[in-house]
Write a structure and sequence with these properties.
The complex is a heterodimer of chains A (about 190) and B (about 300).
Chain A lengths: L5 E5 L3 H17 L6 E9 L4 E8 L6 E2 H4 E6 L2 E6 L5 H12 L5 E4 L2 E5 L2 H6 L4 E3 L1 H16 L6 E7 L2 E7 L7 H11 L5
Parallel strand pairs in A: 1-2
Antiparallel strand pairs in A: 2-3, 3-11, 4-9, 5-6, 6-8, 7-8, 10-11
Helix pairs in contact in A: 1-5
Chain B lengths: L2 E9 L3 H10 L3 E8 L2 E9 L3 H8 L5 E4 L6 E6 L11 H10 L3 E6 L13 H8 L3 E5 L4 H11 L7 E4 L4 H7 L6 E3 L12 H27 L6 H11 L12 E3 L3 E4 L3 H10 L1 E3 L2 E2 H4 E5 L6 E5 L2 H4 L4
Parallel strand pairs in B: 5-6, 5-7, 7-8, 8-9
Antiparallel strand pairs in B: 1-3, 1-4, 2-3, 10-11, 11-15, 12-13, 14-15
Classes of the chains: A alpha+beta (about 190), B alpha/beta (about 300).
């Protein structure tokens, strides 16, 4: 975990804490998330029982817009989109179908989409936000934390956004002051929620 | 004649000679694997003839090793079959025990996870009790093991070997009443066991299982079985033709005190009971034939000498 600036596992049982340190390390590595996480603090108290994992992410890649992966050719009302990277084709089609209706979106082959639009619309098309990678990274991160946590902790609360994320989980109802506990763990990292 | 459990590994060429030899000497082939050009035989052979088999096998590049767990069926019990325990920990251990000749079955509990919410249902209990031994693989925290283990062991009558993250002494201290075996420092982990230290932990598990089973064998030797399970397996595979159509790797699984026959109970239970072993003695005389809780298999429990006054 050299890539992570701060990584602590806090646990009243020392042996158990050491095992979970290794588990967290392996899981984040397996899920290719080690480069995403800047700081991570895990707190496990098997007596309560309570699992808190909170952390800070590195700067994530920005929103992918249409011009990032496709070329636009506008001839009067006819707009031809040539796809360069197929990875974002599916989300793009979903957006276009929703916006203009399936009947108005022609796709003669896999890499070409033809639309008939007004001038105003076709000008703004280049900046159309298609895909937000941070969303899926946060989802992956929360999933990885669920793999790390002791099994059977079915009561969960999670949060992500603004470079921060946390997951708290327990077998029983979460304590009312759970957000204070999370804040306290963030302050240990020198961060605030 | 004392039979010793062994594994024979060798080339496929002329391996039938080894099989014939073992059978002629009065031994039994428990399981035969063919892997590409290699044959692995798990067998019980007479103690005095081990050297002879080694000698015959040498020109065929055969290798004979003692495998203390041949002829046993072991349940590897994990709190669930979720990613938290699979594939590492559970599979690594189950697979490692298999290398020593045991037939292991993985039992993933439906609601075995959690500390307060862990449960064991009657089907799981009965399935575990059909084995010779149960290996429980629990987690890393003492507090959790202490709280949940009494629930998970409820109604289990077979010997238990408990594996968990805390050191062996800590496990011994928290389990009351004691179980038959403990292996510490092998709890939940998410990586493959590759390092020598981790492999030695797996060796500890095998050692502990062997110790517990040896103790069970000693107990059983005081009142020997009316017929050896391996011999009964031979008789069944000779007399019941349908067993050869079963595609499972071990159509008849040998246990220490009985057999699991992978044929439907409703059709073959009565047939099995009436199968003759020797003149006038049937399987029903020497053993109890039950429906197994595992699928629709048949479970045979061989009665001890004290009940039948017969040893064949």
């Amino acid at each position: 975990m050299e890539a992570v600036e701060y990584f602590e596992v806090e646990c009243p049982e020392k042996a158990g804490g050491d095992y979970y340190r290794r588990i967290a390390d392996v899981v984040l590595l397996d899920h290719n998330l080690i480069r995403v996480v800047l700081k991570l603090h895990i707190f496990i108290d098997p007596k309560v029982p309570l699992f808190v994992a909170g952390g800070v992410t590195r700067k994530l890649p920005g929103i992918i817009r249409l011009r990032d992966f496709a070329d636009l050719n506008i001839q009067e009302r006819k707009v031809t989109i040539s796809i360069g990277n197929e990875a974002y084709l599916a989300p793009l089609l979903q957006i276009l179908w929703k916006k203009y209706g399936k009947d108005n979106v022609e796709q003669p082959d896999r890499f070409t989409i033809i639309l008939y639009l007004d001038e105003d619309e076709s000008r703004s098309l280049e900046d159309l936000p298609v895909f937000d990678p941070s969303e899926s990274i946060y989802k992956d991160l929360i999933y990885a934390l669920q793999v790390i946590q002791p099994e059977g902790f079915k009561v969960r609360r999670q949060y992500y956004g603004n470079g921060r994320f946390y997951l708290v989980a327990s077998e029983d109802t979460l304590p009312e002051d759970i957000e204070d506990i999370v804040r306290q763990k963030f302050s240990l990292m020198g961060e605030s929620l | 004649m004392i039979l010793v459990p062994v594994t024979y590994k060798g080339g496929i060429y002329r391996h039938d000679e080894i099989i014939d030899l073992i059978e002629d000497l009065g031994g039994y082939i428990i399981q035969k694997h063919m892997i590409a050009q290699e044959v692995v035989l798990q067998a019980l052979v007479p103690k005095d003839d081990i050297e002879l088999i080694r000698k015959v096998g040498k020109p065929l590049t055969g290798e004979l090793t003692l495998s203390p767990l041949v002829g046993t069926e072991i349940a590897v019990v994990t709190p669930s079959l979720e990613i938290h325990h699979l594939p590492h920990a559970s599979c690594d251990i189950a697979e490692y025990i298999r290398r020593f000749g045991a037939k292991t079955n993985m039992v993933g509990l439906a609601r075995g996870f959690g500390k307060r919410i862990a449960q064991l249902n009657d089907e799981e209990r009965d399935v575990i009790n059909e084995h010779d031994l149960a290996v429980y693989l629990l987690g890393d925290f003492e507090t959790c093991i202490e709280k949940k283990f009494p629930v998970l062991r409820r109604g289990i009558v077979v010997p238990i070997v408990l594996c968990g993250g805390p050191p062996t002494d800590a496990l011994k201290a928290i389990i009351d009443p004691p179980v038959d075996g403990y292996v510490g420092s092998i709890g939940r982990f998410m990586h493959r066991t590759k390092e020598s230290e981790e492999i030695s932990r797996l060796d500890d598990v095998v050692e502990e299982i062997t110790r517990v089973l040896d103790k069970k064998r000693e107990e059983m030797a005081k009142d020997p079985l009316s017929i050896s399970p391996a011999r009964l397996m031979d008789i069944i595979s000779e007399k019941i033709d349908e067993i050869h159509e079963v595609l499972s790797p071990t159509p008849i699984t040998v246990q220490m005190g009985g057999l699991r026959v992978k044929l439907p109970y409703d059709t073959f239970g009565p047939v099995l009971r009436k199968t003759e072993i020797d003149e006038g003695v049937t399987v029903g005389d020497l053993a109890e034939v039950f429906p197994s809780r595992m699928r629709d298999y048949i479970l045979i429990r061989i009665k001890p000498f004290s009940e039948t006054n017969l040893v064949i």
